[in-house]
Every structure is written in structure tokens, then in C-alpha cells.
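[[Sequence with C-alpha cells]]
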Amino acid sequence: MSYPGYPPSGGYPAFPGYPPTGQESVYPPAGQYSYPAVPGGYPPAGGGTYSAAPPSAGYPGAAGYPAPGGYPAPGSYPGAPQAGGMPPYPGAPAGPGFGVPPTGPGFGGYPQPPAQSYAGGGPAQIPVGYPSGQAVSPMPGLPAAMAQCTQGTIQAAPNFDAGRDAEILRKAMKGFGTDEQAIINVVANRSNDQRQKIKAAFKTMYGKDLIKDLKSELSGNVEELILALFMPRTYYDAWSLRHAMKGAGTQERVLIEILCTRTNQEIREIVNCYKSEFGRDIEQDIRADTSGHFERLLVSMCQGNRDENQTVDYQKAQEDAQRLYQAGEGRLGTDESCFNMVLASRSFPQLKATVEAYSRIANRDLLSSIDREFSGNVERGLKTILQCALNRPAFFAERLYYSMKGAGTDDSTLIRIIVTRSEIDLVQIKQMFTQMYQKTLATMIASDTSGDYRSLLLAIVGQ
């Protein structure tokens, strides 16, 4: 299927060569390149399948979570915490603040998920295939003990009929005017895999490209949102990364959001898709567009080689915490490579234990130490990794909040997170959003958006 000028002008630029010339009619052949069913794949957080707690009742929690990673610097927005001040998350329990010895469990107000909230539950809905029809290898399943699931707001529709849906969309766009609500009712209630089949059925039935028809009938943010929903999931991540590095300037926060939060399997698929669809090596593009310690961190992330063993080695956590202290707070200057090595290679449950051990050794939250030792994009990247180790849904809830907070809306970030998490953990993200900000995600979306764009976002998020 060809995507000339896709997405809309004024939004993301088109990428030449997608899909390869001459292959337009085979995007993707229905049922030919099916992704394997994959558990949600995220390591458990908040305890998961950790071994028995370490001696002496465990490591104490860190105090005072620093300013949200990747957003306004401390002091740059109302209510920002200062050293020893209140934690920045709205509604978070009061704590002693930074640099104060921990006195109880928790991470200074950073919300903690219930035990075992991060393994994959039932199989996630996976795209039929890349635009070029590249299949991927299966990802091994996680042990049943880790399978307390995360949950998306979009589930595969029962009694799905791709031909019937294609007919509904055709009628909604035929003649004068467009029945946007009919389009919303279909796209917001079908999994990504089902949307791929609708595209194939539409071309078979009408000899027309569904994406071209949608583009001709829609505009603005609702167009960008619907086109994002019709992209295969891995392709959407790869495409977002390409856009973030294409042309003048680099959208570093997009690189951080995707590369520092995805599983090994997802990273490897993204790297392969980036190469096959855009004919480019993502590592080379990163090296050309970034530099220094931030470049090294992203290159590490691109390898997709993080340890995913769910068993926590508390002795190693203690050693890593001591190593990080000696590389930062315990010396003049900072050994950045040590932070890169630990945060890029250890499993998320292991990193969580390291955060706990660090607070005992340094009498300071590791996130607070990163604030003091680093700056700019490498600081944001390191903090994103730790935030995901502590509570991945809370990280995305924070990103969503800041995409809408203040004047204007960062619609691309809002769209990207809602779409990419809609079948993975958007239910948990909504719960954390309410806990952190004392308002629902739907309420904030409703007050910050309008028209069909708002209707579709709310349909995806659910009330």
C-alpha cells in the first residue's frame, strides 16, 4: 500500500520509499505474515518474582523523588521541589524530601505499582506485519508466576468481520461529507491486528487504498491519530524514531521515550523495521544526530540486550549501588560510563533493588544523585530507565500529563503514547494518572482537546 505524503502535511513528513515501489498491492497480504502472540513482556515491578527479601527487613526506600525526568528542571514550574522539599507528584504522600535519610518504604512519593504488575498477561495484540511483510521470530513466554497482567483499553473485537468493517468505513466516506462517528466506532474498538485486516479487505473489496481515502476525508489531529492507529505497531515506533531524527534538529525526548522503555524483543524488531522500511541503520543515525554520553546511552539501548532474568541478586544490587556511589557522589566528577553500564544492562527488577540499596549507602535517592551528577538529555534518559524500573505506567502517566499541562498541547506525544500503550498497559496508566494528579486522564483530555479528535481519544482511553 502506498503512502504518498503520509502522514498529513503540517504533521510528520513523508518517508521516501515506503512501501517499496511495486509492492503497494501486498500491504500486508491478509493472514500471510502474522506476528507470534507475545506476552506483554514487561518485567514485573514492585516485587514480581523476587526472591525472599534481603536480611534486616530489606533496604529502606529512597526519600524524595526528584523532578520528573525529561520535563521542567527543578524550580522551573510552580510547586517544584527544592532540596528537602515536598515530592513533586500531585497527591503523593508527603516525604522528607531530597537528601534526608529515608524513614520508611517507598521512593519519596513516586507511586509504586502492586506486586507483579509488569509481566505480560494474555497475549498482546500484535500487528500482522511490517509494511514490507517482514515476519519476526517468536519471543519466549514468561513463567506463569510472572504473568499477572497489564491491560490495554483496546481488546480484539469479538465476532470480527474485516469485510463488514471495510464496508462501514466505505459508507462513512462515500458521498458528500464524512460520518466521523462511524469511523471512530470502528477504529477505537479494533485491535491493531484487526485494523491491518480491515485495510487488506478494503483494497480487495473496492480496489482503493483505505489510508488514501481516510487522508482525503480527514484533517488535523484526528487524521494523525487515525493514521497512527492504522500503522503496524513496530512500524509506528520505527517511523516515530525516523521522524525524530529526520531534517533539522532532533527530538531527543522521542528517542528517550521509545528506546529507553521498550523490551528487548520490541527494540530488536524496531531496529530491523527501521532498516527494512527506511533503508537506514538506526545506530548510525543516532551517532549522526546525538553526541557524547547521550549518544552512548542510546546506542546501548539499541542493542536490545538488557538482562531480562527476573530473579533479583541482592548482593549484586549492593555492589552496583556502591559502584554507582563511587562513580558519582563519592568522588570529584562523574564516571558516566559506570552509570551507562549498570542502567543499560541490568534487568528492571534488578535496578529497582539497586535503587533501594543505593538509598541506604548514599543516604540519597539515586534519581536525586543523577540530577546532581548529570544534565540535559543523558540525565533524562538515565532517569527514564530508573522510572520504568520503579513503575512504568507512572512514567507514561507523567509524560501524558506534561503533554497537556500549561498552554497548548503536545499532540504528537499525546497521540503516540495513547496509541502505543492502548493494547499494553493503558488501564494501569490511567490508574496511575488519577493517583498522581487527582484527576482522570479522560477529564484532562476532554478539557484539552475538542471535536472528533477528543471523541476518538476518549473512545480509546475509555471512561
About this structure: The radius of gyration is 22 Å. The chain has 19 helices and no strands.
